[in-house]
Design goal:
Hypothetical Oxidoreductase Yiak, Chain: A, domain 1, globular, 7-stranded mixed β-sheet, about 325 residues, alpha+beta, 3-stranded antiparallel β-sheet, Ribosomal Protein S8, Chain: A, domain 1, 11 helices
């Protein structure tokens, strides 16, 4: 297998070029490219360059409007809504970002919801962005249905992750949690279906509700919720916030994020920001640092978010490794 080493700047450029070549305007392409760079930087391949051909195909087939202009509105203080207009989630989030930050500073807590949206990439990067503003960030996004209720076999909710990030008091992120309601992200199964690799036991069920290690059969069936009924409960909570509260379609009504069938997914997101100074005393950062130290000081302990930081160091030294096959697929959209 032929592989190439790319810099993060290379990743940014080819993502922008492919999306623009597929029919996306420059501003929206740059917003999506930033997300792609962050995914590759942190070693989250399933949401990095692997997704670029899918993004481009979805622009061309009409699942995503690459030229959408998001509309921001606010009916009350601390409540910001964005209509993504069936475009990419990233520019819609960018459009409402300054209003979220200002409202959080003024009110102490604010929420940003997005509807008529699409896949927002790595959810944890959005909660980390909130933390870098000095706020506690709690983010939710739903997805096309892929998880059935416990004891059933018809999918009702998506993998529905939540992201939670905490500021360290110095402009950085002390800890970051990003986990889906499923045992694994669906993109991991999609990636293995393309390489022909088997999936792990306990990840998915086939269309008859039986356990499977075949990625293709898993895509026809449903995902296994993490922790059984507890994982389904978390996914249901996310569904209410990112779909119902945001005014988006239900997961069971959303078209797939993969393939070219169906129109725009019309999914949604919900981001909540808390200003620590509005709730706790000045000891918030000290307590957080003490909490983090109590975890990191123990040999073998894993602090949520630490893997991404380690991957960043590796990316800085060896770059981003991309297969020739993927690079060819991306480049087919450049200049079209």
């Amino acid at each position: 297998m032929i592989e190439h080493n790319l810099s993060l700047e290379d990743v940014k450029l080819i993502t922008e070029q492919a999306l623009i070549g597929a029919g996306t305007n420059e501003e929206n392409a740059k917003s999506v490219a930033r997300s792609t760079v962050l995914a590759e930087r942190d070693g989250i391949r399933s949401h990095g360059l692997m997704y670029v051909p899918i993004y481009a195909e979805h622009v061309q087939c009409g699942k995503v409007d690459g030229n959408a202009q998001p509309v921001v509105s606010s009916k009350r203080k601390g409540a910001i809504t964005v209509d993504a207009k069936h475009g990419f989630a990233h520019p819609a989030i960018d459009a409402g970002w300054s209003a979220l930050v200002e409202a959080t500073k003024e009110v102490g807590i604010a929420a940003l919801t997005i509807h008529n949206s699409y896949n927002c990439g790595v959810l944890g990067h959005h909660s980390q962005r909130i933390a870098e503003e000095g706020f506690v960030g709690l983010c939710f996004t739903h997805a096309p249905a892929s998880i059935a209720p416990i004891g059933a076999k018809t999918a009702v909710i998506g993998t529905n992750p939540f992201g939670f990030s905490v500021p360290d008091g110095n402009g950085g992120v002390a800890l970051s949690i990003d986990q889906s309601a499923s045992a694994v992200a669906k993109s991991e199964i999609l990636m293995r279906s393309r390489t022909g690799e088997s999936i792990e036991e306990g990840w998915a069920l086939d269309q008859n509700g039986n356990p499977t290690t075949d990625a293709n059969e898993a895509l026809k069936g449903s995902m296994v919720p993490s922790g059984g009924y507890k994982g389904f409960g978390v996914g249901l909570m996310v569904e209410v916030l990112a779909s119902c509260l945001a005014g988006a379609v239900l997961s069971k009504e959303a078209s797939p994020f993969s393939g070219t069938q169906g129109g725009p997914p019309s999914t949604g997101q919900c981001f909540i920001a808390f200003d620590p100074s509005a709730f706790s005393n000045q000891g918030f950062a000290k307590q957080i640092n003490s909490l983090v130290d109590s975890i990191e000081s123990q040999e073998g302990a894993h602090l949520p978010g630490s893997k991404g930081k380690r991957n960043r160091l590796e990316t800085e030294t060896r770059g981003v490794v991309v297969t020739d096959d993927l690079l060819v697929r991306i480049r087919t959209f450049i200049g079209t």
